[in-house]
Design brief:
By secondary structure, this protein is an alpha+beta fold. Helix content is about 20%, strand content about 30%. It contains two helices and seven strands. It has helices spanning about 50-60, 125-135; strands at about 5-15, 20-25, 35, 40, 70-80, 85-90, 110. The strands form two sheets. A four-stranded mixed β-sheet has the order 4-1-6-5, with helices on both faces. The longest helix is centred in the middle third of the chain and has 13 residues, at about 50-60. The chain starts with a strand and ends with a helix.
């Protein structure tokens, strides 16, 4: 059996006062450019999912989040053609700083769970959001 590369990712459900979640489009030059995704990114070797979440939000959006304010919500295990992702999903309602697109994200939007279908989302994110709709 062929061994697949497994990528571990921390994903943020940044929730605003209206109950909508932040999504951003992938920058030009990256694979799947223009597709929307939830903020987050790869967990580095020796890094906890919580530390990765805080780091990624600072790097991507210039916001500061305390690890204590990360609410573990669920996880998702999803196979793409070339690799497999395991996503650790945190709901976050408190952060400091103004959200800015630091990594060239083309667009940012706030969407409720029933609005996500209007955006071209990454496959794993669609699976995750469909799961969440069942629980919320």
């Amino acid at each position: 059996e062929e061994v697949m590369k497994v990528i571990y990712i921390s994903i943020a459900l940044l929730r605003n006062d209206q109950g909508a979640y932040l999504i951003t489009s992938r920058p030009e030059g990256k694979p799947l450019a223009g597709m929307f995704e939830l903020p987050g990114g790869k967990i580095d070797e020796g890094e906890t999912p919580e530390h990765a979440m805080v780091r990624e939000l600072k790097e991507e959006l210039d916001i500061l989040v305390c690890e204590d304010d990360l609410k573990p919500l669920t996880f998702l295990s999803h196979t793409y053609d070339a690799y497999h992702v395991v996503m650790f999903v945190y709901e976050i309602e408190k952060w400091s700083g103004e959200i800015k697109a630091l990594e060239g994200q083309g667009h940012m939007a706030w969407a409720t769970l029933d609005q996500f279908h209007a955006y071209p989302m990454l496959e794993a994110d669609i699976v995750l959001l469909e799961q969440l709709q069942k629980y919320v």
